[in-house]
Amino acid sequence: MEYFIIKSLHITFAGIWLANLLTDSVLRGIITTNKQKSGERKFIRLYMTFINLLGIIGSVGILATGIFLVLDSQYGFFDMSANHWLAAKQILMVVLLLTIFLFIIPTAKKIKTELGENLESDTILSENTYLLLQKLYRLSTIVNAIVLINFLFAVTHYLFG
Ligand code: HEM
Question: Atom 5 in ligand 1: which residue has the minimum CA distance?
Fold first, then answer.
């Protein structure tokens, strides 16, 4: 019983992380529409709050439940002798965590510094802020793509035996 509750949680966390695909594109559109208009800083902060929140809930939830599922079953860690779909997911999960900790978090911190504390300020943002934002968009796209690939690996593994 416990196993299936954890598996359901695992799938739920995957869904939460995949929700980033939707919120990401919607919020990017709003930021572009409000470029150099009042409220721009708030929308950029809202974007970073969303990818941060959904990213933390998704990654921590998936990792904790994934490790439990492996420990409570016949599956293994990075075992390329069988269940290649799972080993591939685990390797991509390592890539995801490295991308988040080595690239996304430092870039988001730099953008926060550029935005400053006063989100009501009408001072035009520097060119460097827009370059950092483009970098954050690229990194977030990579993370969303890998989460989607892992999801497809998981739900199609029955097809490939
Ligand atoms: C972005 C990362 C991941 C996503 C999106 C994801 C998604 C999923 C989904 C949707 C399933 C259900 C497939 C099904 O049976 O229909 C699943 C199953 C599973 N996942 Fe993940 N997963 C991820 C990472 C991981 C990691 C890192 C581990 C292990 C450390 C893991 C271990 C498992 C196991 C063992 C199952 C099989 C459960 C079973 O069929 O009994 N997953 N995953």
Answer: 151
